[in-house]
Specification:
Helix content is 42%, strand content 14%. By secondary structure, the chain is of the alpha+beta class. It has an eight-stranded mixed beta sheet with strand order 4-3-2-1-5-8-7-6.
């Protein structure tokens, strides 16, 4: 089994940098009220090798440091780290192997998004910000048990049907989000919880007014190609 010492200086330098990024981003999960106790995880894939950095299993957030982050290959095997990796490691690895443009994955059990997952419902696209960020509804994926690649398979098969969405709600489990890096995936997790909360509140007031797919496509195109700094 390969160890980090088997990789060159460029890879080891990126591992050091990504460990710092991933450790720091876990603080954002707490800041945005997306996790409790030890639930949830962030990972980021390397550009210089088929490796990823992920949170250790069951370690409280206040104890997370760059050195406690675990380096794994894209089959989920540990390459470097003193701790056991997240129980979702095999699923993160599966996503990276099958979605080559994805370099960040996040899983949370945030309250409102997980409530939609528990009822097996897509979050309907009733907000312009959903058109912007998700290009349609936030989809629900299939029920799968934890501890193998099965959840990752469900994430990939669902997002193939919703290619503009960076988020999927795994039924009876919770949201998984993807991005061009871990920060983008964390942003998607925060946005998922925000729209989950707002759409839940809207349902208490009455029927949600859907946005047409034509307008959703225009919103998503503007957000992707015009909004922000380029």
């Amino acid at each position: 089994m390969a160890t980090l010492a088997d990789y060159g200086p460029e890879v080891r330098a990126e591992v050091k940098q990504v460990r710092e990024v991933v450790a720091t981003l876990h603080e954002q999960l707490i800041k945005w009220n997306l996790v409790v106790w030890t639930a949830g995880n962030v990972s980021q894939r390397l550009h210089t090798a088929d490796l990823m950095v992920i949170k250790p299993s069951g370690l409280r957030y206040e104890y997370l440091t760059p050195s406690s982050m675990v380096v794994c290959d894209l089959d989920g095997n540990v390459v470097d780290g003193a701790e056991a990796p997240s129980s979702d490691t095999a699923s993160h690895a599966y996503i990276y192997r099958h979605m080559p443009d994805v370099y960040g994955v996040v899983h949370t059990h945030s309250t409102y998004a997980t409530a939609w997952a528990a009822t097996g419902q897509n979050i309907p696209c009733g907000l312009t910000m959903m058109g912007d960020e998700f290009g349609g509804p936030v989809p629900v994926g299939p029920f799968r048990l934890i501890g193998s690649e099965a959840i990752g398979e469900g994430v990939v098969e669902t997002l193939k049907k919703y290619p503009k969405s960076p988020a999927v709600l795994m039924q009876n489990h919770g949201p998984f989000t993807i991005g061009k890096d871990a920060e983008a995936a964390v942003k998607a997790a925060a946005m998922t919880e925000e729209v989950a909360h707002t759409m839940w509140a809207a349902k208490q007031l009455g029927d949600i007014i859907p946005i047409s797919q034509e307008d959703i496509d225009k919103l998503n195109d503007r957000y992707t190609n015009v909004y922000g700094q380029h």
